[in-house]
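Ligand: 6-O-phosphono-beta-D-fructofuranose. Inputs:
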Amino acid sequence: MRVGVLTGGGDCPGLNAVIRAIVRKGVQEYGYDFTGFRDGWRGPLEGRTVPLDIPAVRGILPRGGTILGSSRTNPLQAEDGVRRVRENLAGQDIDALIAIGGEDTLGVAATLYEEHGLPCVGVPKTIDNDLSGTDFTFGFDTAVNIATEAIDRLHTTAESHMRVLVCEVMGRHAGWIALHSGLAGGANVILIPEHRFDLDEVCGWITSRFEAAYAPIVVVAEGAMPREGEMVLKDESHDSFGHVRLSGVGEWLAKQIERRTGKEARTTVLGHVQRGGTPSAFDRWLATRFGLHAIDCVHEGDFGKMVALQGTRIVRIPISEATARLKTVDPELYAEAGVFFG
Ligand code: F6P
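Predicted complex:
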């Protein structure tokens, strides 16, 4: 039995921990052979492979990134993509394929399984924590820890200068990182994509914080937007790879706050720092368990499934169920945080 493994989409701390667990259990308990596919779906599409065995996964548990490389290549959008993937898998004698990724990578795996009968198993990853069917994705905890540490640091410099400090975190469609790090870091305003914000209200919170003689911290998710009609905030453009680039909400917000409150404001954009480096203990634990259960799916021939965390149990759900809709922040959960605003 030969199992292919790929990591697709934006990288995320914990990817190497999954790969290690898959290979360790696959080799030691089931006697499988492995082939690593390079750079996400580009690997099977173009027949790019790397050796994947016990020596290859030695020492990678605490390492960020992915030893397999990653890309956002979608074979369903490539000419003759499905045929090329099928031929390359057959050429490598692949009996099963484990795809580790977010919504896009897993969406491809779901289609290849459901419409083309390819034996795929999915493992969910994203720092954004916005995949349905799983309570958490690995990478999220690490990102929240990094953002929380940054917010702690911003508090002390904000207090020294009595300035507003805006911290922009990742989260294009879901505000999980903003909500969790904002609560953990004691932010005075948390803005998320799921809830359009009112600039007057935000400035009111900021002013009341100054009245209490404290400097406010605003945590804003990159996808947060003001109420309809307040201003055109986002300037969507595409980079040379065709990816959508949004102009920074954090910078825009700081300017608006200065204009409206007369207080000095600065912005810190955390960006890819949230995605790099070593995974937290929780993410290593979760990624390792996902890997162990994913290879069990292969062993039992249970294809078209994604492993997921529900409570403390690892369960299996159809991949298509996880990718059907994004898991966004519940309005009640967001409302809970409101007591700390201002
Ligand atoms: O999906 C994770 C994520 O980190 C988003 O929060 C962010 O918008 C995006 O990836 C940025 O990805 P990249 O810079 O790799 O295009």
